[in-house]
Amino acid sequence: GTVKESGEKHKGSVEIPNLSEENEVDDTEINVSKKKGEGDVLKDLMRTEGATKVREALRDYLKALKTEFTLGMILPTKAPVGQELAAEQRLSGNTMQDSVSPQSLDRVGVKIPTVKILMREIFNSPADELYSVFTTKELVQKFSKCPAVIEAEKGGKLQMFDGSVSGEYAELVPSQRIVLKWRCRSWPDEHYAMVALTFKDMAAQTELQLECKGVPVSNEDSTRQCWKQQYFEEIRLLLQQSKDDME
To answer: For the Activator of Hsp90 ATPase AHSA1-like N-terminal domain, which residue ranges apply (predicted)?
Structure first.
């Protein structure tokens, strides 16, 4: 900016750390800073009248985003998947190492980056038994320890963990493959990942391969932990319990 009386030019910056469709624009922080030296009059002006102008621009920006959103774009949102998702733990036992494709970052909508998660797990159960755990309401409710909506047919609805996870079955090949539209409640509205579960039968064991495409980068770790801890570890316990009961 330029001081009108003296003609002196000064450089500064405006930072907006918490812009979100979920926040009121009037609650949005606007931090003004400048390099050392004269020019405080410009800094003070930016903190008052300048902040008002910035908020007007933000209102227009979010309004434009909402218009784009109706065409399938994605709004910015506050990040983490629910507090219930635990911190990452080391893998042990017959859990195989997860991996993330190194070239998996894609930009979606208004430049919100997404990532593809790849995971593999070994279960000491045949494929048909493991497949049924994902498609039978009673078994889903047992391992998730919550009421669930499981309509295991193409276009059927899915809801688990008190609504923290929801989605829709897109493809089912018994004992071989399940494809889901899948989302966590705190993700941007109407944004879904595509989850493919592939069951590889290995006699008394099954290798389960998970591919989860379209996960917001900020939710990558918590999404991986959701699958590890709230799905796979609980399913493994359920299968072991069923095996013990049979014996």
So the answer is: 2-73
**Phi/psi at 12 (5° precision):** -155, -175
Q: What residue spans define the domains of the chain?
A: 12-71, 114-245
Residue 105 reports pLDDT greater than 60: no
Q: 77 by DSSP, 3-state: which?
A: coil
For the question of whether the overall pTM of this predicted structure is more than 0.85, the answer is: no
Q: How far is CA 177 from the centre of its chain?
A: 22
Distance CA 156, CA 154 (A): 5
Q: Are 14 and 32 in contact (CB under 8 A)?
A: yes
- CATH for 114-245? 3.30.530.20
> Could you give the CA distance from residue 114 to residue 217 in angstroms, rounded to a whole number?
5
pLDDT tens for 80-101 read: 444 444 433 334 344 444 445 4
DSSP label at 193?
E
Question: Residue 163: left if φ>0, alpha if ψ -120 to 50, beta else—which one?
Answer: left
